[in-house]
Give the backbone structure.
Amino acid sequence: VDLSNCSLHDVPPGLAEATTAIVLDLTENPLTTLPSGSLLGFIQLQSLAVPLALECPGGSDAWQDVTVGRSSRLCQGQRNPCNTSVELAWPCPENSVCAPDGPGLIQCLCDSPFHGYKCLREGTFPMLLFGGILGTATVSLSLLLWSTQRRKAKTP
């Protein structure tokens, strides 16, 4: 994706849809910051060119090679932050595994059959119980409202 020399002051919101991009060029733009979540999901990104004033997202540890040119910085070879020997600030909880989610970003995915907050719930979501309670409450409330409000209906 070539967004060089587009007079961008901020990262365009539509960029989030280009998560399959392998090369991204943001050079020659008056960008002052690159928000940390702006490259969320860009796990295939292998080459990123940013203006010289910006650092590579995720820091230099998130990239295999950082080259500084006259007017730009080239970040190449995105590293998997789950395979580093550096202790993660937010390690994944028990019953989950680490997965890359962009330059210097991770996500924790629950192992099967665990789900929910911090992967603490085991099994599947109780769909039948949930649907039964919701359906019963809806029908009961509808019958109550129909019986109390039908006298207010105008008859011709």
Remarks:
- The longest helix spans residues 127-149.
- The chain is about 15% helix and 20% strand.
- The longest strand covers residues 72-78.
